[in-house]
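Glycine-rich protein
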Amino acid sequence: MAGLSSRFVGIVVLLLVLVSGIVSANMGMRTRRLLDGGGVGGFLDGLLGDLLGGSSSAGGGN
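C-alpha cells:
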C-alpha cells in the first residue's frame, strides 16, 4: 500500500512538473498577447488550451 501511494505521488509530481514546464515555456507568448490587447479572455483561453489539448488555440484567439 505504501509503495502504491508513493508511486502515485511520484506520477502526480511528474505531471505537475511537465505542466508547469509547458506553462512557463508559453508564458512569455501568452503575456505578450495579453499586453498586445488579446485581453484576459484570450490569455486564459490559450492557457486552458495548452493544459487541455496542447496548442489547439495557438493560432486563434485574436
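Residues 26-54 form one domain.
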